[in-house]
Amino acid sequence: MTKTNWAKIDEILNGKKNGKTVSLRGWIYRTRSSGNIVFAIIRDSTGILQATIKKGNLPDKEFEDAKKALIESSLEVKGLVKEDKRAPGGYELQVTSANIINFAEPFPIVKDQSPEFLLDQRHLWIRSQYISSILKIRSTIVGAIHKFFRDRGYYEFDAPVLQPNQCEGGSTLFEVKYYENKTYLSQSWQLYAEAAVFALEKIYNMGPTFRAEKSKTSRHLSEFWMAEMEAAWMDLHDVTEVAKEEVKFILQEVLKHNKNELEILGQDIKKLEKISKSKFPTITYTEAIKILKEKEKMKVEWGKDLRTIEEDKLLKHFGTPVVVTNYPSEIMAFYKPSDPKDPKTALCFDMIAPEGYGEIVGGSQRSLDVKEMTKRLKEMGEKIDNYEWYFDLRRYGSIPHSGYGLGVERVVAWICGIDNIKDSIPFPRTLLRYKP
Ligand code: ATP
Ligand code: MG
């Protein structure tokens, strides 16, 4: 038996197969027929292609089957590739053989369906050009993050998902029964990363992260992927620079590999190119408040965290992501130290994306002050015993160190220019949704 040489649709659209006979397999994306001709759009993982199936060009039984086949039927076809300006992508396939692998039942997804319906049908909707384009970009972004850190000498380091402690505040913990005890799903890799920098110095990780976010927003998922880094000897300034470089690198990689997908999503490629070459500014929280008061005439109080609306208004004054440092100490997590030069504020930062995409990175220098951290944890009602292992890190060769976490889905949503973070992950988990 000779092995079939299966072509991919992108090779055809690249013009490499013009005038040649190819075999192709995939699914029917759209189809219409009139009398003795069927116009089918076939899709595979690389694109869509128009196929013309004419009675007489292939055995009658195959023609009748092709005519009957509904969208999402899977099939193998053989035919001649012809350049045709009218066809989407500029090429069409003149079919000489068609073999339906599976006759699909009537597909439940038709035009103009509600977002909730599409989420119910997510297992089918991921086949759409819209979601599959986002998933391809997501894959580039995930690959870029690994490449960025590995090329710079960081080790990949894994932390447990089941953790005895909170890291980002008790209110968003998911509790898990653990034999006779209880643990929590990881809110962050950070506390374990802080142990590991004493061994590996520069580390990173990307993994599922869980937060029981109790409000419905278009930026929060209950399960999301966080790409974190932690490094010995680095201070706040050092890590903000790493974060800026990382985000730019991610953008450049997407622009290198996914122009096609960005176009399908209707994203402005020129705008992203400009951002990828720009300098990202750093301002302090206090400066941010000043901009909001003076330029936006907003009533904002020094001391409160920036809300979504404030972040969005602030970013109107910049064309790139912006790093905001030195938020008020009081509202920050227990491990964020006060700035000795301005003790009311913490040595921490957020990177905020333009156009309403909000915080994409959050990080800080790490506190080395066991007394201060103990006080903060007690105020929060935490059991100090659970943190003794963490305090040991300050007892045995303590060093300055810093790190941050980047929200993968937030970055995907921003780069893709999509409305809701739910479309940046294959199967979203939110306050109201854990199926399918
Ligand atoms: P926010 O204020 O938006 O809730 P955060 O301050 O809780 O964010 P961090 O604890 O700093 O966020 O987490 C690091 C990054 O992880 C954030 O900058 C963001 O990009 C991402 N992130 C945090 N929470 C979520 C979530 N629930 N869903 C998706 N991404 C998230
Ligand atoms: Mg949060």
What's the N-to-C terminus distance?
41 Å
Mean model confidence by pLDDT: 96
Summarize the main sheet: 8 strands, mixed
Helix content: 25-40%
CATH fold title of the largest domain:
BirA Bifunctional Protein, domain 2
Give the neighbour order of strands across the main sheet.
Answer: 7-11-12-19-18-17-14-13
Helix/strand structural class: alpha+beta
Beta strand count: 19
Determine Rg (CA atoms, Å): 26 Å
How would the global form be characterised? elongated
Low-confidence stretches: none
Bound compounds:
adenosine-5'-triphosphate, magnesium ion
Corresponding CATH architecture of the largest domain: 2-Layer Sandwich
The CATH C-level class name of the largest domain: Alpha Beta
Strand content: 25-35%
Put simply, the count of helices is: 14
Provide the number of structural domains: 2
Q: Looking at this structure, what is the CATH superfamily of the largest domain? A: Bira Bifunctional Protein, Domain 2
Task: Describe the fold and architecture.
The chain is an alpha+beta fold and 436 residues long. It folds into 2 domains: 6-102, OB fold (Dihydrolipoamide Acetyltransferase, E2P) (Beta Barrel); 119-424, Bira Bifunctional Protein, Domain 2 (BirA Bifunctional Protein, domain 2, 2-Layer Sandwich), CATH 3.30.930.10. It is 32% helix and 28% strand. It has 14 helices and 19 strands. It has helices at 9-13, 60-68, 115-120, 122-125, 129-151, 190-200, 236-257, 259-264, 269-277, 285-294, 308-315, 370-379, 388-395, 408-416; strands at residues 6-7, 21-34, 37-44, 47-54, 74-83, 91-102, 155-156, 162-163, 175-178, 181-185, 202-210, 223-232, 282-284, 322-325, 338-339, 342-346, 348-353, 358-365, 401-407. The chain has an 8-stranded mixed beta sheet with strand order 7-11-12-19-18-17-14-13. Strands 2-3-4-6-5 form a 5-stranded mixed β-barrel. The longest helix is centred in the N-terminal third of the chain and has 23 residues, at 129-151. The two termini are 41 Å apart. The mean pLDDT is 96. Bound molecules: adenosine-5'-triphosphate (ATP) and magnesium ion. Adenosine-5'-triphosphate binds at residues 168, 211, 213, 219-221, 224, 226, 358-362, 405, 407, 409-410.
